[in-house]
Amino acid sequence: MTRILLTGASGFIASHILEKLLARGYSVRFTVRSEDKAQKLLAAHSSHASQLDYVLVPDIVVPGAFDAAVQSDPPFDGILHTASPFHFNVTDPQKQLMEPAIQGTVGILQAAQKYAPSVKRIVITSSFAAIFDAAQGSYPGKTYTEADWNPITWETGLENPLNGYRASKKLAEKAAWEFVEREKPGFDIATINPPMVFGPPKPYISSLESLNTSNERTLNFIRGKCKQGLPHSGVFLWTDVREVAEAHILAFEKPDAANKRFLISSNEYFSNQMIVDIIAKCFPEYADQFPEVREPNDGLPEEGCYKVDNSRSREILGMSYRPLEECVRDLVVALKEMGL
């Protein structure tokens, strides 16, 4: 039985990864920060109890945080590293975003190199934020690929939480590639770089009050918090959480994924206007919660917008992508199940 270590398993993306790994028959050790989260995951997957164990890692910044987690008998074949902060309610981008992302990523690589010689591949959750150059705005005519890197610097990352997040993803991923080049470990790596991630959360690990940042906007729309006008949409690129989860597993399974970045993104744009249009169509009971005045051009940049090339994900991983309407509909159904 193939054995995997999954870090940060209570996260939005990782909870989907865990479910898919168990369905595929993997043996999984997961890490979470608290006993409460561990017990929720074990209870949700009680039918797979023989495939599951866990280790608590309260703080991924502490030196040696993952040392115990990577030591296993039977040993691990691979590691899926998703643990990294993604929220903007921070006062210190360096301490709350940048250092945890970088030190957590380097820490898992160091631990595997030292204590888990059986590991052949580590798949790391990065982000389109490590690729996207926000300073260029809508960048008409640009097609982003895995060859692109966000030029943001450490100093710029200190300026505000949004810059801190973008810097954390870029610098953590750079640190991983530099580690592999410098240390020549016995494993290779692959990174998963999605833009906005939408879709249904797992109710056993999430709540309406603790939604992931990407889905929180949809909840706010439905609750009428944006009746006076929709906020800026962000990057206009998105993917479904179930596809991001699938991509992590495929990047471990596919030999040709070694030492590659994967831009996991639908070719279909999204905007906040498009999201509320879908909700109004599929759930008309919420239509009066939305602004009466429509965003021009369906909320997309009138001057045109960058594109994304997801061909590597299709050709090497075999990815396909859901339409936005299916993703938003499934998200709202999940929110209703959670008590909306």
TrEMBL record:
Q: Which SUPFAM superfamilies match?
A: NAD(P)-binding Rossmann-fold domains (SSF51735)
Name the InterPro entries on file. Answer: Epimerase_deHydtase, NAD(P)-bd_dom_sf, NAD(P)_dehydrat-like
Q: Which Pfam families match?
A: Epimerase
Give the coiled coil ranges: none
Q: Which residues form the NAD-dependent epimerase/dehydratase domain?
A: 4-260
Q: Which UniProt keywords apply?
A: Oxidoreductase
Q: Would I find Oxidoreductase among this entry's keywords?
A: yes
GO MF, one example? oxidoreductase activity, acting on the CH-OH group of donors, NAD or NADP as acceptor
Instruction: Give the similarity note.
Output: Belongs to the NAD(P)-dependent epimerase/dehydratase family. Dihydroflavonol-4-reductase subfamily.
Under PANTHER family, the record lists: NAD DEPENDENT EPIMERASE/DEHYDRATASE (PTHR10366), NAD-DEPENDENT EPIMERASE_DEHYDRATASE DOMAIN-CONTAINING PROTEIN (PTHR10366:SF814)
Q: What is this protein called?
A: Ketoreductase
Organism whose genome encodes this protein: Morchella conica CCBAS932
Q: What is the lineage of its organism?
A: Eukaryota, Fungi, Dikarya, Ascomycota, Pezizomycotina
